[in-house]
């Protein structure tokens, strides 16, 4: 391998910069030419590709977002788009491509490998919804951001004896909602992975809490559920109508995606970035970086994409016990 390109794709996540830095510096360390590709797969199709050196990634390890920018690219899902991307990759002399992104980005990388590109995937998404890994870059920071917001909301819920509904990100996966719910002492956590009964699991729980002397209540609503039953504001109104308890809804939105990455995200991104490039250097490719039993390992990209992941049901049991 003489030259490697790196891009970020899909939704941005804190720690992506730390990953870019690790990939670029490791390549340079081993004498490999490194290229940055802007705006995800779009840059590969439009030729927005530039050579990077060790200094190109100075002062970014602590920054949220991604200096390479990110995007979704429809054209890359077509044969024509892949051909274009491949001919530009050849023109720039790219021997391999490191993709930092979610499952969708992995699918793009896997398909691109069929056109002859050697690929490596790094899990970058706040949702922790990549089946092949226990942990994704950005997840820890996002959870801490949500936790911080929840603590603040709890203060005012306490002061006004209110119920608060907090809508958090997670379209298909409720990992953020579940963890923050446990850590923040939520009474109710609504996850896309788990069916619930409106009356039994929400209303009766809140009323039961009131009967037990509770004065304030937290409901965590994952985005995937909000899309089905209406958002936090709508749910707040329903809860207020049915319980008589003053209820307020908050949608956290994009603040969950930004911010300076936590130490865990920085360390994980750094270690995965180094490993991905060292594997390429050793002639190993078409793999994705994963955390398995708290260790960083690599697995075949096809195998990774065939895996499924569930939420931690034991955590739900904790909520059952701790929210009485
Ligand atoms: P996030 O978890 O933040 O949503 P993601 O990587 O899953 O990240 P997607 O929007 O699903 O985000 O995918 C990012 C990009 O990957 C797409 O815009 C597209 O360019 C490419 N991609 C996704 N699926 C495929 C596919 N089946 N074939 C080729 N390219 C794909």
From TrEMBL:
**Activity regulation here?**
Allosterically activated by ADP and other diphosphonucleosides, and allosterically inhibited by phosphoenolpyruvate.
Compartments in which it is found: Cytoplasm
Q: What class of enzyme is it?
A: transferase
Q: Pinpoint the Phosphofructokinase domain residues.
A: 4-280
**Keywords, comma-separated and alphabetical:** Allosteric enzyme, ATP-binding, Cytoplasm, Glycolysis, Kinase, Magnesium, Metal-binding, Nucleotide-binding, Transferase
**Which pathway does the UniProt entry assign to this protein?**
Carbohydrate degradation; glycolysis; D-glyceraldehyde 3-phosphate and glycerone phosphate from D-glucose: step 3/4
Q: Which reaction does it catalyse?
A: beta-D-fructose 6-phosphate + ATP = beta-D-fructose 1,6-bisphosphate + ADP + H(+)
**Chain sites annotated for binding Mg(2+):** 103
What cofactor is this protein dependent on? Mg(2+)
Q: Which Pfam families match?
A: PFK
Active site located where? 127
| GO process annotations (BP) | canonical glycolysis; fructose 1,6-bisphosphate metabolic process; fructose 6-phosphate metabolic process
* Binding sites annotated in the UniProt record for substrate: 125-127, 162, 169-171, 223, 248, 254-257
Q: What is one GO cellular-component annotation here?
A: 6-phosphofructokinase complex
Q: Where does this protein have coiled-coil stretches?
A: none
| EC code(s) of this entry | 2.7.1.11
User: What residues bind ADP, as annotated?
Assistant: 21-25, 154, 185-187, 214-216
Task: Name the Gene Ontology molecular function terms of this record.
Answer: 6-phosphofructokinase activity; AMP binding; ATP binding; fructose-6-phosphate binding; identical protein binding; metal ion binding; monosaccharide binding
Quaternary structure, per UniProt, is: Homotetramer.
> What is its biological role?
Catalyzes the phosphorylation of D-fructose 6-phosphate to fructose 1,6-bisphosphate by ATP, the first committing step of glycolysis.
The similarity annotation says: Belongs to the phosphofructokinase type A (PFKA) family. ATP-dependent PFK group I subfamily. Prokaryotic clade 'B1' sub-subfamily.
Name used for this protein in its record: ATP-dependent 6-phosphofructokinase
């Amino acid at each position: 391998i003489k030259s490697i390109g790196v891009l970020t794709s899909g939704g941005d996540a804190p720690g992506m910069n730390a990953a870019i830095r690790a990939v670029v510096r490791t390549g340079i360390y081993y004498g490999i030419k490194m290229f940055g590709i802007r705006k995800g797969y779009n840059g590969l199709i439009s030729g927005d590709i530039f050579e990077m050196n060790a200094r190109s990634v100075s002062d970014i390890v602590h920054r949220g977002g991604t200096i390479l920018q990110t995007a979704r690219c429809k054209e890359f899902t077509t044969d024509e788009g892949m051909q274009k991307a491949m001919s530009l990759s050849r023109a720039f002399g790219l021997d391999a491509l490191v993709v930092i992104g979610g499952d969708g980005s992995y699918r793009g990388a896997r398909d691109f490998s069929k056109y002859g590109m050697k690929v490596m995937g790094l899990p970058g998404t706040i949702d922790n919804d990549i089946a092949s890994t226990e942990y994704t870059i950005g997840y820890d920071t996002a959870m801490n951001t949500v936790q911080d917001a929840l603590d603040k909301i709890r203060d005012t819920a306490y002061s006004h004896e209110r119920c608060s509904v907090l809508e958090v990100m997670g379209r298909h996966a409720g990992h953020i909602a579940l963890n923050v719910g446990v850590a923040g002492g939520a009474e109710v956590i609504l996850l896309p992975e788990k069916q619930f009964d409106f009356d039994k699991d929400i209303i009766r729980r809140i009323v039961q809490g009131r009967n037990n002397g509770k004065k304030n209540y937290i409901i965590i609503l994952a985005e995937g559920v909000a899309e089905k039953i209406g958002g936090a504001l709508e749910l707040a109104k329903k809860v207020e109508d049915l319980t008589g308890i003053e209820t307020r809804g908050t949608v956290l939105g994009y603040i969950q995606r930004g911010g300076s990455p936590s130490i865990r995200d920085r360390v994980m991104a750094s270690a995965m970035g180094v490993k991905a490039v060292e594997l390429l250097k050793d002639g190993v490719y078409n793999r994705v970086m994963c955390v398995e039993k708290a260790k960083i390992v690599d697995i075949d990209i096809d195998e990774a994409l065939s895996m499924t992941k569930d939420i931690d049901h034991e955590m739900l049991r904790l909520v059952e016990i701790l929210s009485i």
